[in-house]
């Protein structure tokens, strides 16, 4: 059985699409972090909010920032891999 190797151009395009998706996801995670911090700041002035709310939201925001950094790192690694194929 003979199989054809994938079209390099198609492969490169697919990799670049993934790079774009990873970068887009990183931007989303940064936006989520911003929203979580804004919510934490709003709740900070609310006497009815549980005291643990702000620290929990800050931890979630930090996790989002970490995820954004990891997504960007993955995007850069994938981009380097795509360029190495050139």
Please outline the helices and strands.
Elements: H1 8-44, H2 53-84
Helix pairs in contact: 1-2
Brief sketch in words of this structure:
It is built from 2 helices and no strands. With 86 residues, it is mostly helical.
Describe this structure in words.
- 80% of the residues lie in helices and 0% in strands.
- With 86 residues, the chain is an all-alpha fold.
- Helix 1 (8-44) packs antiparallel against helix 2.
- The two termini are 29 Å apart.
Helix content: over 70%
Taking pLDDT < 50 over at least 5 consecutive residues as the criterion, the unreliable ranges are none
Order of helices and strands: HH
Question: What is the count of helical runs?
Answer: 2
Please describe the biggest sheet, giving its number of strands, its sense, and whether it closes into a barrel.
Answer: none
Which keywords apply here?
mainly alpha; 2 helices; 86 residues
